[in-house]
């Protein structure tokens, strides 16, 4: 492998992506509150839904027959949510610290910046969700890892969809300023009800089902229920989720790049800060 | 021209109805220290922003170190750097962490050695392990300067490099910039409205007013041309709309 390029990617690009990731790992390392917050919400959600599941298991044959269907939904949903936040929070950190000007004047390319955000998101999501999955085993004797190999496909489809949404939101925050930062926390909430996290998509009104089937997450949660309830792996839903994700990720990156250009055109980068 | 580090032609920037920069043209010779001088709203920061690619021009061309900044910006970014009071380094990272991140972004080899050398030169070694946000304004300025010099830039663009510094620290910064320019043969373009700073540091001055370059020349030339004692009086003449002849009379 040459010094100048690794796997066809210039070494300098990999170093810059690494530097971008390092900046946020330094931040996490130096702040135990940030680190604890990563695992806090997934764990609280898991505990809450674990008790609900235990209660419903005595009341509902649906839950009794597939004990983990709600807990799996909670844990997988957090992959999507944390994946999106993992892209948005590092970008907001740059804006809060008024560091974007330095970043954009450095040799880092916009696509390298995007890859850097995705790498940070992957690390943050794993750090946030894995402890909750392990505690679910301790507290409720339920292991999301019992989903087997499909879990890998579920994980990547959900995190990629989160990345796509996160990149688009970063673009909007860049374009409209920190007044729009709330978007990073609220937009994803609108995706949850139509993703069929806790109930089948078929239970939605028919017009809403059409919207739902445009989301990769809906296919993932249908696939999850197929594994847990019927015991079979639906490759068709994984394929649809993957194809949709390609489009969403391209659209998310496109929106970010478009908004970056708009921000440069409007002279916003030097004005950004708290 | 090969001997110019910066070539700007007919540069304009409109923000809606507001014309921030209006047909500015100038050149900055390699190895010189040049000032963009003007009052608030004269277009200094917008011009620096366009030179760096942070702001897209409405019209005009910019060449930095021989490269077209509008189309080949990334080919030259490794050789330039900048500092501005409008941007900051992450406060929660230590000084050493910030410098390491930027050294890697700029592709600096032997990162630790470079940081140690800058720490010695800029007298920041004692707070390398301190969070950047916990430094005093003067210390932070020296750290910002260390970041701006991390890649030993051929061209350094500085927006108000001594703004909000006490006279002692400001004097130290000016001395350091002059030494760096001499030793590295670097080109420095600084935006300022500190007349003393410009007179002491700069070989050439570009006077901006309401987005236009209204005059250029060495500080001594401008002072003579306007028949004034110092650059501050020249600045006031230009800011108050008095022309050269009128001022000289």
The pLDDT mean of chain A sits at: 91
Count of the separate structural domains of chain B: 1
Describe the global form of chain B: globular
Biggest sheet of chain B, in brief?
6 strands, mixed
N-to-C SSE series of chain A? EEHHHHHHHHHHH
| Uncertain parts of chain B | none
Gist?
Chain A has 274 residues and is an all-alpha fold. Chain A is built from eleven helices and two strands.
Description:
The complex is a heterodimer of chains A (274) and B (249). Chain A has 274 residues and is mostly helical. The longest helix of chain A has 31 residues, at 110-140. Chain A has one domain (5-271). A two-stranded antiparallel sheet of chain A has the order 1-2. In chain A, helix 2 crosses helix 6 (110-140) and helix 10 packs antiparallel against helix 11. Chain A is globular, with a radius of gyration of 20 Å. Helices cover 75% and strands 1% of the residues of chain A. Chain A has helices at 11-29, 32-57, 61-65, 68-96, 100-105, 110-140, 150-176, 183-191, 206-212, 216-230, 235-265; strands at 5-6, 9-10. Chain B is α/β, with parallel strands linked by helices and 249 residues long. Chain B has a single domain, classed as Rossmann fold (3-Layer(aba) Sandwich), CATH 3.40.50. Helices cover 36% and strands 26% of the residues of chain B. Chain B has 9 helices and 10 strands. In chain B, the strands form 2 sheets. Chain B has a 6-stranded mixed β-sheet with strand order 6-7-8-3-9-10, with helices on both faces. In chain B, helix 2 (95-105) packs across helix 3 (111-121). Chain B starts with a strand and ends with a helix. The interface between A and B is large, with 36 and 37 residues.
Task: Jot down its keywords.
heterodimer, A: 274 residues, mainly alpha, two-stranded antiparallel sheet, 11 helices, 2 strands, 75% helix, 1% strand, globular, B: 249 residues, alpha/beta, Rossmann fold, 6-stranded mixed β-sheet, 4-stranded antiparallel β-sheet, 10 strands, 36% helix
């Amino acid at each position: 492998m040459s010094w100048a390029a690794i796997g066809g990617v210039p070494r300098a690009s990999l170093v810059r992506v690494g530097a971008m990731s390092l900046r946020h790992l330094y931040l996490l390392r130096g702040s135990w509150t940030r680190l604890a917050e990563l695992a806090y919400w997934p764990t609280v959600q898991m505990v809450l839904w674990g008790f609900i599941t235990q209660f419903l298991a005595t009341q509902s044959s649906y839950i009794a027959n597939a004990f983990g269907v709600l807990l799996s939904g909670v844990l997988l949903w957090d992959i999507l949510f944390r994946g999106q936040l993992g892209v948005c929070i590092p970008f907001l950190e740059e804006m809060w610290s008024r560091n974007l000007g330095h970043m954009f004047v450095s040799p880092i390319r916009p696509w390298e910046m995007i890859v850097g955000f995705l790498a940070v998101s992957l690390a943050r999501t794993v750090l946030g969700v894995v402890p909750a999955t392990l505690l679910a085993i301790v507290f409720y004797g339920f292991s999301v890892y019992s989903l087997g190999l499909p879990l890998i496909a579920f994980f990547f489809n959900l995190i990629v969809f989160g990345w796509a949404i996160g990149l688009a939101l970063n673009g909007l925050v860049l374009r409209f300023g920190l007044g729009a930062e709330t978007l990073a926390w609220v937009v994803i909430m609108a995706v949850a009800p139509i993703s069929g996290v806790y109930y089948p998509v078929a239970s939605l009104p028919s017009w809403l089902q059409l919207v739902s089937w445009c989301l990769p997450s809906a296919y993932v949660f249908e696939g999850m229920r197929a594994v847990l309830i019927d015991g079979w792996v639906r490759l068709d839903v994984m394929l649809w989720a993957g194809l949709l994700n390609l489009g969403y990720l391209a659209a998310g990156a496109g929106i970010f790049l478009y908004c970056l250009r708009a921000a440069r055109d409007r002279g916003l980068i030097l004005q950004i800060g708290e | 021209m090969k001997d110019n580090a910066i070539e700007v032609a007919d540069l304009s920037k409109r923000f809606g109805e507001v014309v921030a920069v209006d047909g500015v043209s100038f050149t900055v010779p390699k190895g010189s220290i040049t000032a963009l001088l003007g009052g608030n709203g004269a277009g200094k920061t917008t011009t620096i922003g366009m030179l760096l690619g942070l702001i897209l021009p409405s019209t005009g061309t910019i060449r930095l170190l021989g490269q077209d900044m509008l189309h080949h910006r990334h080919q030259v970014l490794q050789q330039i750097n900048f500092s501005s009071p409008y941007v900051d380094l992450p406060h929660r990272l230590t000084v050493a962490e910030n410098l390491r991140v930027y050294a890697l972004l700029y592709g600096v080899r032997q990162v630790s050695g470079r940081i140690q050398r800058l720490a010695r030169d800029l007298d920041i070694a004692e707070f390398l392990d301190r969070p950047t946000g916990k430094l005093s304004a003067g210390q932070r300025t020296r750290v910002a300067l260390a970041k701006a010099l991390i890649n030993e830039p051929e061209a350094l663009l500085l927006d108000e490099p001594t703004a909000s510094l006490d006279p002692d620290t400001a004097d130290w910064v000016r001395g350091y910039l002059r030494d760096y320019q001499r030793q590295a043969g670097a080109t420095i373009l600084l935006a300022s409205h500190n007349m003393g700073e410009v007179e002491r540091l700069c070989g050439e001055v570009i006077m901006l007013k309401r987005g236009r370059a209204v005059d250029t020349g060495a500080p001594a030339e401008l002072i003579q041309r306007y028949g004034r004692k110092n650059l501050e009086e020249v600045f006031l003449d230009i800011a108050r709309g008095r022309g050269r002849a009128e001022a000289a009379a």
